[in-house]
Write a structure and sequence with these properties.
The protein has about 260 residues and is an alpha+beta fold. The chain has nine helices and 14 strands. A hairpin with a 2-residue loop joins strand 1 and strand 2.
Length: about 260
């Protein structure tokens, strides 16, 4: 078994264990310990506990690997795990099932595999570079939508960018005939593009832990995905993200104006 295969196998088990841990908080709201890091920037006890548990498991199995996470930080490494312990924390805190655990692995700066586990929905997305993408063990592909006027797009909102910029982007897409929505989990947005539930996901600024898994899953399912990690500052400062079904790439990129 190769090093990547070994890590992917371990990550699948760890993700399911973390999902069970997160669900123990989700189903018992008295344990949530909800607080705010900023406007619409939610934090629960589960976020810290899930990430800390992940770090312990990786340290036991792969002591020379590094971990970067939303809650405890981290930096570049030749073998880097990137975790968002609860992506969609606002949903999680409100009892909405649209949230997931996101685990990505980068080797020498290149995303090799990603896992998104949404335990409240019983959905397990996985992708490995060069090996395709799956949902609950079955292969997935992007939609064959060929026109923006037939498309369903998700456009994430970031409070790190001007609100008018976001509203203008949404307006352009509506005016071009697209249906536009926002579900508040960038990781799940990429997964939904990958399996054809939407035709694209875009956000003007997003952090590495939100997309490290999803970029692999979406690309391996056949989506156009911008090279989020090409910038040397992506890990520290984040970047725009855009993923689109092949049939709407040209018009979608023009309307979204993010790459």
């Amino acid at each position: 078994m190769t090093d990547i295969s070994l890590r992917l196998a371990a990550a699948q088990t760890i993700a399911r264990d973390l999902g069970a841990l997160a669900m123990s908080y989700f189903t018992d709201r008295t344990k949530l310990g909800t607080s705010m890091k900023g406007a619409q920037d939610w934090l629960t006890v589960a976020d810290g506990t899930v990430e800390a548990t992940f770090r312990t498991r990786i340290a036991e199995l792969f002591p020379d690997d590094s971990v970067m996470g939303e809650e405890q930080g981290g930096g570049a490494s030749d073998r880097l795990w990137i975790i968002d312990p609860i992506d969609g924390t606002a949903n999680f805190a409100h009892g909405d099932r649209q949230w997931c655990i996101s685990i990505g692995f980068l080797a020498n700066g290149r995303p090799e595999f990603g896992i998104l586990y949404a335990p409240a929905l019983d959905e397990f997305f996985m992708g490995r570079r060069g090996h395709g993408a799956s949902l609950n063990g079955k292969p997935i592909r992007v939609a064959d939508t060929a026109s923006i006027s037939q498309s369903s797009l998700e456009i994430g909102w970031s409070n790190r960018r001007p609100l008018d910029e976001y509203l203008d982007r949404v307006r352009r897409c509506f005016q071009a005939g697209a249906s536009v929505k926002r579900a508040a989990s960038g990781a799940m947005g990429l997964a939904y593009c990958a399996c054809g539930r939407t035709d694209g996901y875009a956000e003007s600024h997003i952090n590495a832990w939100d997309v490290a898994a999803g970029v692999v899953i979406a690309a391996e399912a056949g989506a156009y995905v911008n090279d989020f990690f090409a910038s040397a500052t992506a890990l520290k400062n984040g970047n725009p993200i855009i993923a689109l079904a092949p049939g709407i790439v040209d018009e979608g990129r023009r309307l979204l104006a993010l790459d």
